[in-house]
Amino acid sequence: MITIIDYGSGNINAIGNIYKNLKIPFKIAASPNEVIGAEKLFLPGVGAFDETISKLDETGFRSILDNEVLVNKVPILGICVGMQILAESSEEGILPGLGYIKGKVRKLDKALLTDKPKLPHLGWNSVSISGSNLLFDNIDPDVGFYFLHTYYFECSDIDDVIGTTYYGKTFASAVNRDNVFGVQFHPEKSHRNGIQLLHNFAKI
Hints:
- The chain has one domain (2-203): Class I glutamine amidotransferase (GATase) domain (Rossmann fold).
- Helices cover 24% and strands 28% of the residues.
- It is built from 5 helices and 13 strands.
- The protein has helices at residues 12-21, 49-59, 61-71, 81-84, 191-203; strands at 2-5, 26-29, 40-43, 76-79, 89-90, 103-107, 121-125, 128-129, 145-149, 151-155, 161-166, 170-177, 180-183.
- The strands form 3 sheets. An 8-stranded mixed beta sheet has the order 2-1-3-4-13-12-11-8.
- A hairpin with a 3-residue loop joins strand 11 and strand 12 (170-177).
């Protein structure tokens, strides 16, 4: 059972429709108590870092997530800003992140970019997969995934990076430490690769 966290940030219906079509059981948790005892957690995110963290705090999800992820070791997948808030902090704001994976979120340097519009990083891009990780089973890295972001996750430990993408510079587009996973791209907009990745997470 996949528990999709509904704290007012992210396209939860698109994710739910994919799992419905895959015939993989899921539920949408609109309250923190619905997260307790979850088998797997899905953390969406759209918008700014501080706004997203504030929503987690205001809705009461944050303390429950800390217990389920850090104590009970429930697998969690964060996407887009949902990945970025896994970090300790961000240049985009002043609030502390969840800190599940050590690192800081930084802004892409538009001075390094030649494509216009330079920011945000928008559209399809390939992902170079580092080593072997179940999250990327049967994924075509050359086809890649759909991106829409201006900030990226800079991990303190390079071993936490499981996928990289080039846009002016090489940045971490997928991270993993123990039971915590994050991807910068939008799997729900990434057609076959995105569907496969969501299916893979369900099997972790």
